[in-house]
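Customer escalation, tier 2.

The customer says the design service returned an amino acid string that "doesn't look like it belongs to this structure." They asked us to rerun it and document both sides in this ticket. The original structure tokens are below, unchanged.
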């Protein structure tokens, strides 16, 4: 009996328990687990590679009646769980998949569940702009909270005010540091550039980039007939013999982008580039880009672009996995993520 007691008190388990109670030594932090939805598995793999961990085991399938079934293939009890799912592709199915994954982890006793949503779905439906119009972005926020999400990490929300739809912490990262780096690395004569916003709503984004590059900015005022259809455009600013760089948060049908490129070309711009965070490229957008005046259309990999890049050689990619992986690492370790708002991670 005495020998058993001596063995117990000399064991590493007893030493750890004593240190935890007395405040000596390091208390156990919950381990990190990263799971990937089916919307952007390549981005999730890149993030996990940078974190030095494996993507968590999970299985997603559909029943014969098209209901989504998600099975988490490993224990998450007491763990710090991150679920990566972009609001792209089959958006409604992907939202449902994300909600089910969050709830599955929550009721499996995960210590914290963070939804990493590089592209926030329904972000353009963020206000009641006409009678009986829904505020769908608020509805999505409510569903994420009810499902059990404790924290949201996203990138370049269409409207920053969407953060106010949540009662849980939201980190809205910006692609701006990656955009500035791409411009300086890939446009030799970038000091002769002018940053152009395709609408008044993006003026703040454009002026911030122009200030960091110490170049001028311009603005295109557009009047819409209806969604995705523009009636007229007016350029405010001088782009003569300059490299015009259109910057926006997303490119959908690319009709506005291509009209803006034509307007800039007619106004005397030497070259026209387009840079946006989320390249949706719905419909025949790749064909429009091929027939446009763009030197290149640059997007991040918040949305998978492999198929679109095969259709259009002008589409180029910025990898933002290092920003998301660093945000996950800092969140897990309880560090500030504000550094990422203006700076690129070193690795």
């Amino acid at each position: 009996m005495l020998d058993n007691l001596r063995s117990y008190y000399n064991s590493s388990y007893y030493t750890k328990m004593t240190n935890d109670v007395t405040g000596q030594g390091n208390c156990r932090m919950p381990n990190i687990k990263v799971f990937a939805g089916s919307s952007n598995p390549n981005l999730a793999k890149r993030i996990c590679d940078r974190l030095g961990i494996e993507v968590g085991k999970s299985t997603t399938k559909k029943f014969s009646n098209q209901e989504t079934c998600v099975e988490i293939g490993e224990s998450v009890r007491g763990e710090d769980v991150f679920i990566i799912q972009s609001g792209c592709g089959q958006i409604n199915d992907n939202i449902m998949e994300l909600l089910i994954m969050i709830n599955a982890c929550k009721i499996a006793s995960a210590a914290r569940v963070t939804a990493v949503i590089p592209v926030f779905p329904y972000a353009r439906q963020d206000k009641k702009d006409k009678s009986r119009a829904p505020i769908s972005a608020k509805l999505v926020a409510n569903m994420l909270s009810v499902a059990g999400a404790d924290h949201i990490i996203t990138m370049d929300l269409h409207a920053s005010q969407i953060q106010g739809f949540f009662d849980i912490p939201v980190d809205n990262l910006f692609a701006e540091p990656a955009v500035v780096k791409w411009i300086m690395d890939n446009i030799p004569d970038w000091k002769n550039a002018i940053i152009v916003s395709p609408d008044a709503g993006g003026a703040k984004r454009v002026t911030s980039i122009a200030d960091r590059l110490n170049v001028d900015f311009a603005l295109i005022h557009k009047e819409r007939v209806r969604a995705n259809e523009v009636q007229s455009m007016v350029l405010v600013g001088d782009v003569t013999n300059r490299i015009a760089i259109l910057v926006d948060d997303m490119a959908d049908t690319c009709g506005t982008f291509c009209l803006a490129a034509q307007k800039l070309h007619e106004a005397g711009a030497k070259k026209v580039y387009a840079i946006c965070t989320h390249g949706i490229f719905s419909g025949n957008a790749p064909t429009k880009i091929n027939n446009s005046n763009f030197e290149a259309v640059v997007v991040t990999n918040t949305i998978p672009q492999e198929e679109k890049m095969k259709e259009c050689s002008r589409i180029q990619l910025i990898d933002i996995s290092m920003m998301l992986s660093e945000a996950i690492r800092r969140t897990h370790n309880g560090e500030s993520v504000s550094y990422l708002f203006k700076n690129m991670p070193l690795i």
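Tier 2 assessment: The sequence is consistent with the input. The mean pLDDT is 89. The chain has two domains: 29-173+322-336, 176-223+231-300. Sent an explanation to the customer and offered a walkthrough call.
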